TrEMBL record:
<dbReference type="GO" id="GO:0006000">
    <property type="term" value="P:fructose metabolic process"/>
</dbReference>
<dbReference type="GO" id="GO:0006002">
    <property type="term" value="P:fructose 6-phosphate metabolic process"/>
</dbReference>
<dbReference type="InterPro" id="IPR000146">
    <property type="entry name" value="FBPase_class-1"/>
</dbReference>
<feature type="binding site">
    <location>
        <position position="85"/>
    </location>
    <ligand>
        <name>Mg(2+) 1</name>
    </ligand>
</feature>
<dbReference type="Pfam" id="PF18913">
    <property type="entry name" value="FBPase_C"/>
</dbReference>
<feature type="binding site">
    <location>
        <position position="107"/>
    </location>
    <ligand>
        <name>Mg(2+) 2</name>
    </ligand>
</feature>
<dbReference type="GO" id="GO:0005986">
    <property type="term" value="P:sucrose biosynthetic process"/>
</dbReference>
<comment type="subunit">
    <text>Homotetramer.</text>
</comment>
<feature type="binding site">
    <location>
        <position position="104"/>
    </location>
    <ligand>
        <name>Mg(2+) 2</name>
    </ligand>
</feature>
<keyword id="KW-0479">Metal-binding</keyword>
<comment type="pathway">
    <text>Carbohydrate biosynthesis; Calvin cycle.</text>
</comment>
<feature type="binding site">
    <location>
        <position position="106"/>
    </location>
    <ligand>
        <name>Mg(2+) 1</name>
    </ligand>
</feature>
<feature type="binding site">
    <location>
        <position position="262"/>
    </location>
    <ligand>
        <name>Mg(2+) 2</name>
    </ligand>
</feature>
<dbReference type="InterPro" id="IPR033391">
    <property type="entry name" value="FBPase_N"/>
</dbReference>
<keyword id="KW-0119">Carbohydrate metabolism</keyword>
<keyword id="KW-0963">Cytoplasm</keyword>
<dbReference type="GO" id="GO:0006094">
    <property type="term" value="P:gluconeogenesis"/>
</dbReference>
């Protein structure tokens, strides 16, 4: 018997209003998946012609995905605030609802032109507590990965589940307990940035490269998709570690990835699945945000690997 997202949400012991916010983000993701599938035929490719608040060139599909999310959110009276990578300011909706959504509507958009997996990431918070909340206060988090199949990964904090989009546009439960492997021999980092790395990152990666001939004592493999969603999905399915640490080039900005709609939701998901997350020096979910587009260092995945990186940071 198949379990649809609607069936599953109805069976959860969570506030039905919160469940409806998650259902709204799932519906937006299904629509984005449909647009992405036909984008090269419909001509939705290339740049939108403007930059977002972070100075990044927006792709046409970044803007389209953001509009799809905004339209769905406007339809749900439970949501009163939207924070998006693609919007300079938080949007305060006319709705009086108790929930806020923070989203990266299209993650990994530089991969669009080469037909490689991209995604939508979202975090759900209590709107009454303000815009700048710690990740540990998230009420739910999820992402959609638009790959060979469209996967929807969700957590309310206790466990992580995976749905797959079927031909009729419905999400069907395909994995009801995700557990991040405690140990792994796979790591993900952009090694082209090596000359900017700090001593901890250099030390950890050098051990991995040395494999069974070095102090790690086992062989490692490296994978870097360049879409955080795709890299994290691989780690949820078969273990590993994802790193976008602070380096000498990103220090002034605080890091590369954004706290509210990339680091926090992914950290909540990875931790709910038994993994760990850190900046190297503190837990991501403990950080107190200072701005809605704040950037932070991100290290998360299999507990043993994250602990090894923390060990390197503790040395200096
Ligand atoms: O281009 P780099 O430095 O490898 O960075 C890749 C990272 O940047 C991102 O693409 C940032 O996300 P956006 O595409 O939403 O801006 C992540 O998905 C990915 O992990
Ligand atoms: Mg992103
Ligand atoms: Mg994005």
């Amino acid at each position: 018997m198949t379990t649809t997202l609607a069936d599953w949400l109805a069976a959860q012991t969570v506030d039905p209003k919160l469940a409806s916010v998650v259902a709204t983000m799932a519906a937006a993701s299904a629509e984005i998946a449909a647009v992405l599938r036909l984008a090269p035929i419909e001509g939705h490719t290339g740049l939108a012609g403007h930059t977002n608040v972070q100075g990044e060139a927006q792709k046409a599909l970044d803007v389209i995905s953001n509009d799809i999310v905004l339209n769905h959110i406007r339809e749900n009276v439970e949501i009163s605030i939207l924070v998006s990578e693609e919007l300079d300011e938080a949007v305060h909706l006319e709705n009086q609802g108790d929930f806020m959504v923070a989203t990266d509507p299209l993650d990994g958009s530089s991969n669009l032109d080469v037909n490689v997996t991209v995604g939508t990431i979202f975090s759900v918070l209590d709107a009454r507590k303000g815009l700048l909340q710690q990740g540990k206060d998230q009420l739910a988090a999820g992402y959609a990965a638009y790959g060979p199949a469209t996967s929807l990964v969700l957590t309310f904090g206790a466990s992580v589940v995976v749905f797959t989009l079927d031909g009729a546009g419905q999400f069907v439960l395909t994995l009801d307990t995700v557990a991040v492997a405690e140990a792994s021999g796979e790591y993900a980092i952009n090694t082209a940035r090596e000359r900017f790395w700090d001593a901890a990152t250099k030390g950890y990666v050098a051990e991995n490269v040395a494999g069974e001939t070095g102090s790690a004592g086992k062989r490692y493999n490296m994978r870097w998709v360049g879409s955080m969603v795709a890299d994290i999905h691989r780690i949820l399915m078969r273990g590993g570690i994802f790193m976008y640490p602070l380096d000498s080039e990103t220090t002034g900005k605080g890091g590369r990835l954004r706290l509210l709609y990339e680091a926090n939701p992914m950290a909540m998901i990875v931790e709910a699945a038994g993994g760990k997350s850190t900046t190297g020096r503190e837990g991501i979910l403990e950080l107190v945000p200072t701005g809605i587009h704040q950037r932070v260092p991100v290290i998360l995945g299999s507990a043993e690997e994250v602990a090894r990186v923390e060990g390197w940071y503790a040395k200096g």
